[in-house]
Amino acid sequence: MGIMAKKRDLSKIMSKSFSTKQSFGDKLAETASKIFHVFDNKLTVMIVPHAKGKVMNFQTNVFAMVLGIVIALGVLLSFIFFNKNAINSSAEISRLFTENRQTMASLDELRDENNNLLQTAKRFQSSLNQSLSLLGIESQSGASNAPLANGDLSSLFSMEELATGSVREAADIRQLTSYLEGAVQPIEQIGKMLETQNSLFSDIPSIWPVRSAQLHVSMGFGPMVHPITGQWYVHKGIDLSTWRSGDPIHVAANGQVVTVAYDMGYGNNVIVKHKHGIYTRYAHMNTIRVTKGQFVSQGDVIGTIGNTGVTTGPHLHYEVHIGSDVVDPIKYLNIKVSN
């Protein structure tokens, strides 16, 4: 009995489900039929001209009308979209064209500057070779004759076959680089020579012991009329004056102070011993700022201009001795421009 009841219940459930599915399918078919009938409705479109003319009419249905409207809207929207893109593309092309013209103008200017720089480098190379020849230094002339020898593409190009454009500019830059690289070693050699010469100049009295815009030589070296006695005598140095006392006196070269004294004629005076048997004397000083035995470097202040001893006014009497000989200090001062 229980089994039969269960079978009846299952049968009822299945029939109800089938009926439900059938009713849903019927409703869907009914809805589709209504939509089809709506789109299948006939329409008559008439075109009536204002002036006398033939009236035009044609028949269609709702589906064709809706489809035509959708297609027309699609075409219109596509036209608007592509027209907007075309306008943007045109503006971008115009901007790129303007930038290209500016870039070309800058490139032409760069080419001119590059050419001027290369010509300057050639003049520099020529002047450098002449200077090296005078100094006895071998010039690196091979660098200018083979400007592309160090380049990775040197085997692909030659100066006669280079076309205008970026390849030529690149070759000019490589040539300029070669000029500069060839000049490095000679300039270093010149620097070493100048360093050696500066060391030599520091050991000889090659700078003016007084530095002032008012400095002048009040009395030169050699036979002179004594300003006090009026007699001819040999002036053993030069007198440097600024028309005032107290201006600093600089030692003319590296050396050692060997004399710090007062003399009736020279007044307060200092003698410095330098290399190569050279001595310098500084006389008529107002104050002395060094002591005997002290080592001094070229340019150090050793005292101030004064009016001690036999003088007619404040000045520095400056002498240069080589061994027992007295020489004109101007000859040494003309070796090098004073600092």
Range of strand content: 15-25%
What structural category characterises the helix and strand content? alpha+beta
SSE sequence, one letter per element: HEEHHHEEEEEEEEEEEEH
The profile of the biggest β sheet is:
10 strands, antiparallel
Task: Let me know the average pLDDT.
Answer: 79
Oligomer designation: single chain
Secondary structure: helix percent: 40-55%
Shape: rod-shaped
Rg, rounded, reads: 54 Å
Number of strands: 14
Span between N and C termini? Answer: 135 Å
Low-confidence stretches: 142-163
Number of helices: 5
Structure in words:
- The chain is α+β, with helices and mostly antiparallel strands.
- The protein is built from 5 helices and 14 strands.
- Strands 3, 6, 7, 8, 9, 10, 11, 12, 13 and 14 form a 10-stranded antiparallel β-sheet that branches. The chain has a two-stranded antiparallel sheet with strand order 1-2. A two-stranded antiparallel ribbon has the order 4-5.
- Strand 13 and strand 14 form a beta hairpin.
- Mean pLDDT is 79; it is low at 142-163.
Topology record:
Elements: H1 2-39, E1 42-47, E2 56-61, H2 62-135, H3 142-145, H4 166-203, E3 216-219, E4 222-225, E5 232-235, E6 238-241, E7 248-250, E8 255-263, E9 267-273, E10 278-288, E11 295-296, E12 301-305, E13 316-322, E14 325-327, H5 329-333
Antiparallel strand pairs: 1-2, 3-6, 4-5, 6-13, 7-12, 8-9, 8-11, 9-10, 10-12, 10-13, 13-14
